[in-house]
Hints:
Elements: H1 2-22, E1 29-33, H2 40-56, E2 60-64, H3 71-78, E3 86-91, H4 92-101, E4 113-122, E5 124-128, H5 130-136, H6 141-150, E6 156-159, H7 165-177, E7 182-185, H8 189-198, E8 203-207, H9 208-216, E9 221-225, H10 240-243, E10 257-264, H11 269-284, H12 286-294, E11 298-299, H13 304-325
Parallel strand pairs: 1-2, 1-3, 6-7, 6-8
Antiparallel strand pairs: 3-10, 4-10, 4-11, 5-8, 5-9
Helix pairs in contact: 2-11, 4-13, 7-13
Amino acid sequence: MLNRRHALLAFGAAPWALHAQSTWPNKPVRIVVPFAAAGTTDILARALAPEFQQAFGQPFIVENKPGAGGNIGAAEVARSEGDGHTLLMGTVGTHGINVSLYPKLPYDPIKDFVPVTLVAAVPNVLVMNPAKAKAAGIDSVADLIKYAKANPGKLNMASSGNGTSIHLAGELFKTSTGTYMLHFPYRGSAPALLDLVGGTMDLMFDNLPSAMAQIRAGRLVALAVTSAQRSPALPDVPTVAEAGPAGSGLADYEASSWFGLFAPAGTPMEVVNRVQQQTAKALSAPALKERLQAQGAVPSGMSSADFARFAERETQKWAGVVKASGAKIDGG
């Protein structure tokens, strides 16, 4: 009798659970961006939001929650209900770097989230204010190294925040070349770029999509990309490894970024799979795919399981980069 009762309960509960999942979304969905507006994380979230809204029939609202290298926004999503109505546009920082960089995180990047899909990978690009570069006689990575060694601490290096791949790319460059530049963290790429274009800052290792418009307009000069291969979006710009002179320590330099969707732990896999499949569909559509590629992004859309394995490998890789760079963040 006990087994029969359990079977009846299970039979009765299953249709209800399926119905609860199949009605998703039944209200607006938040996509939390843990950085300021107009950076690459924000660009990608806002590119996908209308695609999701059209496919699922509910508003997908992008909310910027910047601060602490992405930790503030990530922690908010980690505390959210796992009902599919809150998503995080996570980054290599929130789910690859920060666990090694911060002594204590306000979230667990594995236990508190379900990986949904990798949205895109992008190289960072070493950019300088043109007037500052001209005044210092810097036309190449070799020139930059020479100047920085002759003028330790004179160059100001902006970043989108402590612990971001933009910050770590710069720290790795400094460690590899034996140079010293002052680091100024901002609450996202957009405000850092404003000061870089305005001349308050000298250089930055920004994500290529957020810097591309300024490069094309001539307001920034691109010295090198941080990926292992040149970017099709800037085919004439060398990699840091290519541009580094012999003996500079840059022969194996590589420090790229990635961005992906995460859901709070407990989110039904049916919902996760629907979001992943729609993301892959949107990113494969020619118009959006070509637009992102023109900005320097490499669209993905991989499965949840593949993304989980990818994030695990990246966490291990960046742990080595953090250790080699000597970078430390006191806050959480």
